[in-house]
Amino acid sequence: MKTTITEVAKHVGEEVTIGAWLSNKRSSGKIAFLQLRDGTGFMQGIVVKADIGEEKFQEAKALTQESSLYVTGVIVEDTRSPLGFEMQVNDFEIIHEAVDYPITPKEHGTEFLMDHRHLWLRSKRQHAVMKVRNEIIRATYEFFNENGYVKIDPPILTGSSAEGTTELFHTKYFEEDAYLSQSGQLYMEAAAMAFGRVFSFGPTFRAEKSKTRRHLIEFWMIEPEMAFMDHEDSLEVQEQYVSHVVQSVLNNCKIELEALGRDTEKLEKVKAPFPRISYDDAIQMVKEKGFDDIEWGDDFGAPHETAIAESYDKPVFITNYPAEIKAFYMKPDPKRSEVVLCADLIAPEGYGEIIGGSQRIDDLELMKQRYEEHDLTGDAYKWYLQLREYGSVPHSGFGLGLERTVAWIAGVEHVRETIPFPRLLNRLYP
Q: What is the largest CA-CA distance in the chain?
């Protein structure tokens, strides 16, 4: 019977066959220990010379790293293994013998590993990170589907910027200028006016020449948009969504979190509601922590966000930023026009901003004023203005950066490990 490593719990005491690769091995006298992986997980296979015969045992000892094979044996419980099971091997068939696999158990430099990313993904650590990423994606669809959201796919090629910035990748769309999307938000606002509650999940691109551990050139965003929702409603959705994702990873990725050495006690505290502080209070907080150079009206950098997060054991919302440092479409606070109804969600443990969100301007005349202030009077934004002309309603939305969220939940230092094939400032290979 063929099965997979994740399914072996159903076959204790039975003989099964698994297609696998040899990630590592060691031998001790008359026993060989094969570290097997099949894409679903990792498991140890025990080869005993007395059971398998001299010829087959020597063949097992000669197996090379990353050779592929069919392994047949009986599944037994093993409490010492993270999986809880191992295989007593009684036969195997080599499919392909790998020779001189470049990533050995010794230490390798980051650049070497990035050059071999197509192979590095096979390692136990990278496998665990990708499984956490997959669970976050699964839990995302689960949360929004269960709460009545419709998935809408915004275009990747656009004729304008979502936030009016210049950090865009330019291309030619036949005779027209086009750009790779930096956010699907504007299109999701249109979708919300048609479907009420929507979300998108797709790649975005920022031509930002940054080399920090938090930045990628190509990354994935989850962007919900909600009609008839104000800023406070949106904050509640955000904290419920993040709580759901974290708890789903805790419940479904125990083996992966253990492989990553993640302190799960910190993640267990991530349950709604989350603390909230105003931008004004956040400025005062970082000043008190020794950042004398920051003034009201400045945006927070990574050190400031880390300093703020240190005071909390949950993600924290920083609300009501100055209008001057936020996007043109954010709704001013009715009680205080110099700040907008927005929030950034800062992850604990120094992982920085994972969500940016706001209530959007729904007043036609105010949006026209913003167009003039930001020189958005061309045809490219005409359709966006029309959303305020025909049945405008209060609406809010946010965007969560997947890779930063994976880094935080998995406890990985650099976002380059949180996406299968990272695109960095100086890396377009493999």
A: 85
Q: Is 280 helix (H, G, I), strand (E, B) or coil?
A: helix
Q: Contact at 8 Å (CB) between 302 and 352?
A: yes
Q: What is the pLDDT of residue 379?
A: 82
Q: What is the structure's pLDDT at 374? A: 87
Q: Which residue has the tokens 């009684």?
A: 90
Tell me how crowded residue 108 is: count the other CB atoms within 10 A of its CB. Answer: 15
Same fold, 5-96 and 117-417: no
Cα–Cα distance measured from residue 353 to residue 246, given in angstroms and rounded to the nearest whole number? 16
The length of the chain is: 430
What DSSP string runs through 368-418? HHHHHHTT--SGGGHHHHHHHHSS---EEEEEEEHHHHHHHHHT-S-GGGS
**Any residues with CB less than 8 A from the CB of 314 and at least 6 apart, and which?**
269, 270, 271, 274, 275, 348
Write out the CATH class of domain 5-96.
mainly beta
Alpha-carbon distance 276 to 350, whole Å?
17
CATH code linked to domain 117-417: 3.30.930.10
In this structure, which amino acid lies at residue 294?
I
DSSP state of 211: -
Q: Across the 430 residues of the chain, what is the mean pLDDT of every consecutive 10-residue run?
A: 97 98 94 98 98 96 98 97 96 98 94 98 98 98 98 93 72 93 96 98 94 94 98 98 98 98 98 98 97 96 96 97 96 97 97 98 96 84 95 98 98 97 96
Q: Are 217 and 197 in contact (CB under 8 A)?
A: no
Amino acid of residue 102:
P
Provide the pLDDT for residue 113: 98
- Give the span between the Cα atoms of 321 and 299, in whole angstroms: 9
User: What are the distances in angstroms from CA 49 to CA 20, 86, 87, 300, 329?
Assistant: 21, 17, 15, 63, 71
Q: Per-domain residue ranges for the chain?
A: 5-96, 117-417
Could you give the CA distance from residue 64 to residue 90 in angstroms, rounded to a whole number? 19
